[in-house]
Amino acid sequence: MASPTCYAFVGTYTNGRREGIFVFRFDAERGTAQSLGATEGLSNPSFLAIHPSRRFLYAVSEVGDFGGKPAGAVSAFAIEAQTGTLRMLNQQSSVGSGPCHLSVDATGRWVLVANYGSGSVAVLPINADGSLAEASDFVQHHGASVNPQRQEGPHAHSVILDPANRFAFVADLGLDRVMIYRFDAERGKLTPNEPAFAPVKPGAGPRHFTFHPGGRFAYVINELDNTVTAFAYDAECGALRALQTISTLPEGYAQTSYGADVHIAPAGRFLYGSNRGHDSIAIFAIADDGRLSPRGQAPTHGRWPRNFALDPTGRFMWIANQESNAVTLCTVDEATGQLSTRDQFHVPKPVCVKFVVAGGG
Asked: Is the pLDDT confidence value at 145 over 90?
């Protein structure tokens, strides 16, 4: 069976540029990418999310002021299936400042957005045409942790729903907690779960969170101490039980580095985490009990690898090297999990990569 042709969407920091979201056609059979242009006029569309129908794309606008209020924005786009062109539908306030991550629930009716600056989470309804309505719910976090520079208050850094669409998990870097909410997919409401959170080590700084394809395990990458924490997941009550915390850096590495993004290969055998500073992708094998074993670090051949993504086949990885203005394309050895650099192409200040199969509806 031939590998699919995909559209790759790359969110960026604009830094005064007009171009925001860059679009590529990716041939997963040949491993080649073709630039298709970029959206214009949107400030800092850093993180992206795809609707389950693959017809719509949502982007944060990572700013501190929207409509004269201390808030960022979320933008809705329609995806032209035959060309990959993005057509803006509308924007809504993220309610909090500095939105940095968002996701779409499994029903395709709600966008959940994490506001890093103000340490809050909002839920925005999705209309039938893919556009967004004003927030249906908002949750403000409170508290602090041990790092006075980075954890003086709450900093919600990602929001992810579990495979059953029943619970929402918010990694809050400022609180050293993965906050847990029951999610009402009928009304678009968040209610604190019991337990209300899973703690990580003080000063760890949880950032991005992901579930294993099997649904029994979950993982958070911790920005400030360059670790990944593995959890066992109880899907009935939404509880996380810590199994292990492991470094993403080589033993003895003492220079400044920060963890950023975490993803699992489609087959569920390998986990990857990005290191900004060490400028590498950490590779781990996943055991049957969910624990991780280190398999080394692959260089990204760029500076400050922010987020990265595996294409739908699991055979390729795109790495967004923010400070060297380049996306690195790697092949993935599905047997060993190792990465080999294949190509690199220019994208200014890339942050996030998302894929959609071309022609899909």
From this structure: yes
- Mean pLDDT, rounded, for 48-63: 96
Q: For residue range 276-298, list pLDDT tens digits in order.
A: 999 999 999 999 999 999 999 99
Which residue is listed with tokens 């709450």?
A: 154
Cβ neighbours for 128, distance < 8 A, ≥ 6 positions apart: none
3-state secondary structure of 322: helix
Q: What are the tokens at 16?
A: 């005064």
* Strands across the sheet containing 280-286: 258-264, 270-276, 280-286, 292-299
Report the C-alpha gap between 158 and 169 in whole angstroms: 8
R_g of the chain, CA atoms, integer Å? 19
- Check residue 1 and give its pLDDT: 45
Closest C-alpha to 17, from 42, 54, 37: 42
CA 112 to chain centroid, in Å, comes to 12
Nearest residue to 42 via CA among 94, 81, 83, 77: 77
CB 169 within 8 A of CB 177: no
User: Which SS3 state, helix, strand or coil, does residue 282 take?
Assistant: strand
**Residue ranges per structural domain of the chain:** 63-340
Q: Which of 78, 115, 110, 108 is nearest to 93 (CA)?
A: 115
Torsion of CA 278, 268, 121, 64, to 10 degrees: 30
- The neighbour count for residue 106, using CB atoms within 10 Å, is 16
What CA–CA distance (Å, rounded) separates 318 from 306?
11
Q: Where are the beta strands (DSSP E) in 44-147?
A: 48-50, 56-61, 73-79, 86-93, 99-104, 110-115, 120-125, 137-140
- Find the mean pLDDT for residues 321-335: 98
Query: What sign results for the dihedral spanned by CA atoms 273, 274, 280, 281?
Result: positive
The domain 63-340 having CATH identifier 2.60.40.10: the answer here is: no
* pTM, to two decimals: 0.97
Residue 152 has pLDDT above 80, yes or no: yes
pLDDT for the residue 132: 98
